[in-house]
């Protein structure tokens, strides 16, 4: 196997080990997202399997002597010379350096969005807890207790009463 092919297989294998498929799957909320995610995972596994099988094996060496016996040495020598003169060009990666800065910038943006999302999630969880607490107490709560928790509403109602605006 060529050095570049081996390197691609090694990188793909390491990448597949670092992917937390179950963790990502838990974050999906819609059925459509789950279907797309399953399709992505299948495609990734297929590519990874192809890389592991096709490109991880050395080709079997040609038994030139076997062919010399059956065909003749002159023709086999001509084919052997042509075979050995074939050079497979080395892969030169010109795309990765071009997109690496963009990818790194997206990772930074992703981390910022993740932090923002976590803060928003925390805020919403607190709000849900407050609403659930309010739901438990609402049947026995007085207007003064409610307005002590929501002074902006008390001010709004007081202003409406003061301005003789009764909402009709």
From TrEMBL:
One of its GO terms (molecular function) is proton transmembrane transporter activity. Keywords: CF(0), Coiled coil, Hydrogen ion transport, Ion transport, Membrane, Mitochondrion, Mitochondrion inner membrane, Transport. GO terms for biological process: proton motive force-driven ATP synthesis. Pfam families: Mt_ATP-synt_D. It is found in: Mitochondrion inner membrane. InterPro entries: ATP_synth_F0_dsu_mt, ATP_synth_F0_dsu_sf_mt. Its main location: mitochondrion. Residues 107-144 form a coiled coil. Belongs to the ATPase d subunit family. Mitochondrial membrane ATP synthase (F(1)F(0) ATP synthase or Complex V) produces ATP from ADP in the presence of a proton gradient across the membrane which is generated by electron transport complexes of the respiratory chain. F-type ATPases consist of two structural domains, F(1) - containing the extramembraneous catalytic core, and F(0) - containing the membrane proton channel, linked together by a central stalk and a peripheral stalk. During catalysis, ATP synthesis in the catalytic domain of F(1) is coupled via a rotary mechanism of the central stalk subunits to proton translocation. This is ATP synthase subunit d, mitochondrial. It comes from Ziziphus jujuba var. spinosa. The lineage of its organism: Eukaryota, Viridiplantae, Streptophyta, Embryophyta, Tracheophyta.
